[in-house]
Structures are given as C-alpha cells and as structure tokens.
Amino acid sequence: MAKISLREFKTLLPYLARYRSRYIWGLICLVAVDLAQLLIPQFMGQAVDLIGSGGFHVRDLLVIAGSMIGVMGAISLGRFLWRFCIHGASRRIETEMREKLFDHLLTLSYDFYQSHKIGDLMARFTNDLSAVRESIGMGLVALIDGTVMAISILVIIFLQDAGTAGLAIIPLPLITLIILFFGSAVGKRFLKAQETYSAMSDTVQETFAGIRVVKSFVKEWWFIKKFADTNDDYRDANMELVKLFGIFFPFISLLSGLTSLIVLLIGGIRVVEGFISPGDMVALFRYLQMLIWPLMGAGFVVNMIQRGAVSLGRVNEIMRTQPAIASPEKPKLPLKTTETAIEIRSLSFAYAGDPEHPALEDINLTIKQGALVGILGRTGSGKSTLIKTFTRMIDPPGETVFVKGIAVGDWDLQELRKCFGVTPQDSYLFSDSIKNNIAYGLQEDRALEKELLLANAGSLSSIDRDLEAFTQGWDTIIGERGLTLSGGQKQRAAISRAVIGEPEILVLDDALSAVDAETEKRILTGLLKERRGKTTVIISHRVSTLKNADLVVVLDKGRIAEYGSPQDLIAQGGFYARMAALQQLDQSEEKES
Asked: Which of 28, 59, 120, 423 could be cross-linked to 511 through a Cys-Cys bond (beta carbons 3.0 to 4.6 Å apart)?
C-alpha cells in the first residue's frame, strides 16, 4: 500500500499560482461572507432586547429586519462569487491535470503498459482527479471557512460573556483529538477504496475488451462472479469509510450539543441574575449553534485533504515515471545517401523479466535500401522482438541496430518512427470510421493528399473490394477494436494504414495470416509494384508469402539459423525447405479434396 504524504500537494503549486487571482478573490469573498454571517446573531439579540423592553415601535423592528435582509443579500452574492472563483479554478486545474496526465502517458514506453492495467489508469483519470479537485476546491473552502468562523465566534463569545464561554468550550479539546485520529484513519481506508476501484475497473475493461472470447467459451458466469467479487470488495472498502463517518459525525454532534446545554444552563442563570440580557443570551446561543459547522467542517477538511493526498499521490506516481525510451539530447541526422536501410551488428537482447534467456542472440544482418526481406521462424523464435528494435519499441543495446547509417539510439524518436510503416501482429483498430482508421497513418503535412492516398492504400491492401459490403462505405463505423470486421478485413485495414504515408521502410508482422491465398497474392504483387526502390520487411509463417523476397532470414531460438535467397534456402534443405515442402503438400491435398 502506497504511503500517504501531504507533501504531494507541492506538485499543485504551479497550478495554484496560475489561478492565484481567482483564489484570492474567492477567499476574500468567502471571508466577507463569514464576517457578514456573524452580524446575524447581533441583529437577533437586538430584536429580542427591543421586544423584551416592551416599549418599541414597529419601525424599529423593520429597521433591524431590513438590515438583516440587506446582509443576507450580500451573503448570497458573496457565496455565488466565491463558488464561481474557487470552484471554477479547481475545475480548470482538474482539466489541466487530466490533459497533462494524458499527454504524459503517451510519452511512456511500451513496457509501462505491460506492467500497468488500463482499468487502473482510468481510475486515476476519473476518481483520483475528482478527489484532488475536491481537496483544492471544497476542501480549501471548508478549511478557511471553518478557521475564520471558529476564531471569530470564540473571540465574540468571550468578549460578550467570558464565564459562560469558558465553560461552553470545555468539549472542544476532545473534538480536536477525535479529528486528528479521524484524519489518519480516513486516509488509509480511502487508499484501500481507490485501489479496489482500480481492480473493479480492470475487470470491467478486460471483460468487455475480450467479449468475443467470453461469449465464445460461454464464460459469462465466470466474469459475472469475478465482477461481483471485486464489486463486493469495493463496497466493503467504502463501508469501512461509512462506518467511520457514522461514528464520527454523531459523536461530534453529541459534543456540540453539550456546549448548547451548558449555554442554556449557565447562560440562563446569568440572565436571571442580570449579568447579561436575554438578547445577549440568544446571540450567544446562536453563535454556539454556528460553531457546530466549523467543528463538523473540520472532519470534512481532514477527509477531503486526506483523500486528495492519496489520490494526488497515485496521479503523481504516474507523472514521476520517466519513459524508458526517449530521444537523446542531441539527436543525429540520418545520412542523405546510404545503400543500407537497416544494419544489425552483434545484437543480443533479453527482456527484463527473463534475463537468463535472451530473446535475440548475436544477430548480424544487413538490409539494403529497396530490398524485400522475409523473416521466418517458429513461434517464439524472436521475429517480433527483432522488428521492435528497429523502431525502438524495445530498446536494443547501444551501437547494435542502425537505420540509414545511424544507431537507433541516436535518432530523434519521432523522426525514427516516421521512417517506418508498421503493421503489428495485433491489428488494432479504433472505434471510428474505416477512413479515419486508415488515415491515422498519414502525417499532417500530407493531409491535402488524403483522398488520393486513401484510394491508393485501399487498393493496395484490397480493402476497397469490400466497400460495397459496408453500410456507409469508407465512413462505416467499425466498432471498438474493429469488432464488426473479420480478421482478414482488420489486417487489410491495418496494412492500408501502414502504407498510406508511403513510408521509407514498411514492416508487416504476420499481417497476411488471415487473408486468403488470392488476396495475399494481389497484395504482394501490389507491394512489389508500388514500393519499388523502398524497403519492405515481411514476417510470415507462409513460405508462399516470402517466395519473391530478395533475402529470407530464418530465426531459431533467437539466432539466425538460415540466411539467403528463397532458392538458396530450398537448396540447403533446412527449416525453410521443410516448411516449403510441407505447405506445398497441404496445398496439393486441398486441391485434391
């Protein structure tokens, strides 16, 4: 469980400084409202004494009533102004923090998202930032309001009748001790509640993201139970808070009631003895009634500040995370002319979670400019890991992977990735139109060519052949993660997205596995024609996909097992030749059947 620290609020100082004028005016209005409220008991006391005197004119009461109405009108206006200033500022800070958090998350590297669940990140975007807003909005208001009111009321009642006031405040030290204990307990319980909310969000996100699998295996009952368990945990964590509040506020009310009882007994005696007037007694009683809010408000302050500290700590935990992969301070410019697109020198790489078993070991490879290169290998042989080093989705050791003559670690990260068009194994599509999903691959400086490039990319991947089947053509909304498309359609849309920007280097990671042989042939023929002079790297389990490659690399357990043209590898009789013979046999059997 994370440590709770009020020092987390230091990170809010730049935001508070930016909106200091709003906070200053809001606090001025708040204090003015508090001082104005202190006049109301005085008016009430004057009215009681006036009526008790027996000889008064209605006009005198109307003057007092009019004064009270005027003060109440000023109080209403002041309350509007401090709400507008302070709550408005806290809402703006929340918005800026949410945008900053989102921007920062986009800078974090691929490995961060492997160790952090999306549901937990969503909880920090919603519940945690809302709690931070409450702490710098209503929490600040309750703190200033309670402090001003409590000090002012205590000063007034002591000046008015020190004897009665001294006895009436006897319960206050006990209330202070209870508030201190309450604050510590709230912080721990609220942190647990936020963590269980994150777990519940994770369950919901994973369930609906994998709804096809859930329904295919008829596992709705299992996820219903899983959600019910996390939902119950969230309820139990919040019930711990509810129980705490259920004890705290009634007990504070009891102690506050004791002060009223003391005033009634002692104050009543002093009125009878003539030490104070009935009006002073009414005013004193009213002031002590008003003192209940600062006492109760202290609980709210502690609650909101503790919640805010917990939530701000969770947000700051993300904000303090630095991207594991970032651009160097002084990136190098690529060579203007080079015969080599990609060069790999003695590359060995192991994932942090399994350092004893390298995913890649002693890889040496040169991919010439304009070459069509195929990569083949068993599952887990390191194919996807290898191509991730090209774009620094994972960070290779220094001086091992070079693009256009420059080590990938010396490139500006965005410029490096602009050189590539990548279709990963997971053909992820956004909940948007087909057109927009493809156009994501287009850089802003080519937006004017969007329609022409879209048509070319759609033709190259053959996705344009399916447009008649889509209800609204290019503008058809495909649903979250491309839910309404077949596997082949998703792959072809992803290929279109990769080629639309006409990248210098195209990487297709098993991007044709779900398309039929005829469509695959059409796509490969189009790639050879349209990308003449540009580099293309294709990972595939199909030998037929790689038969036109200039070079084929066969990986086995992270090492290069075979290397050469398709014809050379057939002649060698190794893994490539065996796969070619096996797949040719499968095709022959399919034709006979």
From this structure: 423
User: 308: exposed, middle or buried (C-beta count within 10 Å: 0-12, 13-18, 19+)?
Assistant: buried
Encode pLDDT of 236-285 as tens digits.
Answer: 988 888 888 787 777 777 777 777 777 778 877 877 777 778 887 788 87
* DSSP designation for 505: E
Q: Which domain holds residue 473?
A: 426-503
Count of other CB atoms within 10 angstroms of residue 527: 21
> Same domain for 72 and 179?
yes
Q: Is 227 exposed, middle or buried (0-12, 13-18, 19+ CB in 10 A)?
A: middle
Verify that 117 and 163 share a domain, yes or no.
yes
Identify the H or E element spanning 562: strand 559-564
DSSP 371-410: -EEEEEE-TTSSHHHHHHHHTTSS-PPTTSEEETTEEGGG
pLDDT at 4: 53
Query: Are residue 473 and residue 577 in the same domain, yes or no?
Result: no
Dihedrals phi, psi of 299, to nearest 5 degrees:
-65, -40
Question: pLDDT digits over 465-482, tens only?
Answer: 888 788 888 888 887 777
C-beta pairs of 156-164 under 8 Å, 24+ apart in sequence: 156/38, 156/287, 157/284, 157/287, 157/288, 160/276, 160/280, 160/283, 160/284, 161/267, 161/270, 161/275, 161/276, 161/280, 161/284, 163/266, 163/270, 164/262, 164/263, 164/266, 164/267, 164/270, 164/276, 164/284
What residue type is 437 in one-letter code?
A: N
The whole-number average pLDDT for the span 199-222 is 79
Based on its alpha-carbon atoms, the radius of gyration of the chain, rounded to whole angstroms, reads 36
C-alpha 117/C-alpha 203 separation (Å) is 10
The amino acid occupying position 342 is: I
Least Cα distance to 124 among 321, 313, 323, 324 occurs for 313
Please tell me the least confidently modeled range out of 171-185, 355-369, 525-539: 171-185
Closest CA to 123 of 321, 318, 324, 323: 318
Do 352 and 364 lie in a common domain? yes
CATH number for the domain that contains residue 484: 3.40.50.300
pLDDT interval class at 183 (50, 70, 90): low
The count of domains in the chain is: 3
Share of the chain above pLDDT 90, in %: 31
Report whether pLDDT(375) > 70: yes
Q: What is the pTM of this model?
A: 0.77
Alpha carbon distance 457, 463 (integer Å): 9
Query: What letter would DSSP give residue 359?
Result: S
- CB contact set of 213 (below 8 Å; sequence gap of 6+): 219
Beta bridge partners, 421, equal 506
